[in-house]
Amino acid sequence: MTVASLLRGLPSLAGPLPAFDSAPASPDELFTSWLSDAINAGVVEPHALTLSTVDPAGRPSARVLILKDLVDGVWHFASSALSRKGKELANTPFAALTFYWPALGRQVRVRGAVSVANAEDSARDFLARSASARANALLGRQSDVLTDRAELDAALAEVDADAVAPAWTLYHLTADEVEFWQGDPGRKHVRVQYTRSAAGWARSLLWP
Ligand SMILES: Cc1cc2nc3c(=O)[nH]c(=O)nc-3n(C[C@H](O)[C@H](O)[C@H](O)COP(=O)(O)O)c2cc1C
Cβ contacts of residue 188 below 8 Å, gap of 6+? Predict the structure, then answer.
């Protein structure tokens, strides 16, 4: 069986899909409304996003994370500063976030500068995680090469369950661009892009 044969005939954006209703003055407001719609539509893990970063040569890499909060145009996510993404963000503190909610045919794209939250907020995020997530983060080895799965179990057995992982970091992405994309089965997709300016958020429509 070929990949092409598996792909053939798979529908995309088949619908029915909602129409783009309205674009409020702030992207935060529209995101809050679209996230509520995704939750109500039963989208699985609607808080999952793809985080894209670049290495020093400008080569991108991307992975899925969980959105922790959105406050006044600042998007929060958390990870290990020692991971590949952590190193890439330390070197190039800019990133893109992408959400996709298939049941609604909606995509949200965010770009901006990334900074590190204070240690207290990172620790609070860490302590709110599940025991197993905390234990894994305490290993401080995310994205290192693992030669044997047994090494992971041995390291987990040694973890001090009450500690806070020093490398666990809450990141803040200050958006300068947010695009809301509403898919249309007839391919007349609606794209509304918010761009931050000194005067506030400007809104433009983009060709699909
Ligand atoms: C649904 C989902 C949620 C995830 N959430 C996080 C997260 O919040 N933080 C994190 O560091 N990794 C999370 N991961 C794991 C990352 O995708 C990734 O494997 C890991 O962070 C290492 O990435 P890196 O090597 O590019 O740094 C999640 C994976 C999935 C599929």
Answer: 208
